Amino acid sequence: MRLITRGRAGTGAYLAAILVVLADQATKYVLEATVPLHESIPVIGGFFSVTHVRNPGAAFGILAGAPESLRFGLLLIVTLAVMVVVIVCLERHRDAGRALTAGLTLILGGAAGNLIDRVSYGEVIDFLDFHVAAWHWPAFNVADAAVTIGALLLIIDLFRSRRPSA
Question: Which of 5, 36, 39, 118 has the fewest C-beta atoms under 10 angstroms from its C-beta?
Answer without folding.
Answer: 36
